[in-house]
Amino acid sequence: MSAARPLTTLRTIAVIAALPLLLTACGYGSESTDDGKQTKVAADGKKLSTDEVRIGYFPNLTHATALVGVQEGLFQKELGGTTIKASTFNAGPSEIEALNSGSIDIGWIGPSPAINGYTKSNGKSLRIISGSASGGVKLVGDPKKIKSLKDVKGKKIATPQLGNTQDVAFLNWIADQGWKVDAESGKGDVSVLRMDNKVTPDAFKSGSIDGAWVPEPTASKLVAEGGKVLLDESDLWPDKKFVITNIIVSQKFLKEHPDVVEAVLRGSVKTNEWINANPDKAKASANAALKELSGKALPAEVLDPAWKSITFLDDPLAATLDSEADHAVKAGLLEKPDLKGIYDLAPLNKVLKAEGRNEVEDAGLGAG
């Protein structure tokens, strides 16, 4: 999050797509994949204001609303004759670049790259239009080396990347313990090692790290390797909820195709409703989508606990996004960003009202 750049670093961090920023709302690789996957449209489907809507998301459980909604045809049902073209990403910066270049119109993404994309464009690139998921982040440690949370001091703990959502959360927790760590280098009372979630399980297994503050399913993979959950980040937040995945849209697309945006949001709301009413079927659907995208499904010992720790919801939990930005500022990784206007929840609230549901709040950060 650059800084002039109003997100000072995340300093170079998230700005460069070559640096992995966010897979699983965080967890991370660096390239995108245009699947070219298009959903089938009913012959009598009525086309909306555009022939096609291009959506982006990560092949990860925290993006299960997108995985399941596409897999089960729930988005397509709302879009009628307008087709979906889906692309998957392994990094937040590459998804933001795709949105800015017009390669995608709507995306599922974590809070850090959403904040970075918004501030780096001086508030002109995107809007957050809905929440999608909460939770799914844990501190897991080697029980032979870490018996309790106080034993984390002096240990080597991994996070996905400098300045990413989990890294900021861990640095904030360390500060709350009264311990000192240099945010940039990761050196101090705790050694914070930044590494891709893909290699964290092997690093843990080899003993080169003592634990990790990571999103699912990486946390459950560490548990499967003998790790112990020391802390669920949800326990640190009011009502045990904090944003891990949002839905964003290009401001240009929102202005030109509000009917399509509303249809996608209806699909998201109905997908989340279906996920929560049918958790086992939804879990299987998400895993089937992951297998199709990555060639490998998650084993039950990883999938089951990971799935249970994620809450799928429509509320973007705007106050927690603002708090996450404050945590990054406190850690010295971020200049205080102006997030006023990052949300436009009017289309979502219209959908929720039509469904007889309560409207959601933007914590004073709305566009209107």
TrEMBL record:
Pfam families: NMT1_2. Residues 1-27 form the signal peptide. Keywords: Cell inner membrane, Cell membrane, Membrane, Signal, Transport. InterPro entries: ABC_SsuA_sub-bd, NrtA/CpmA_ABC-bd_dom. It is found in: Cell inner membrane; Periplasm. It comes from the Bacteria. Belongs to the bacterial solute-binding protein SsuA/TauA family. This is Aliphatic sulfonate ABC transporter substrate-binding protein.
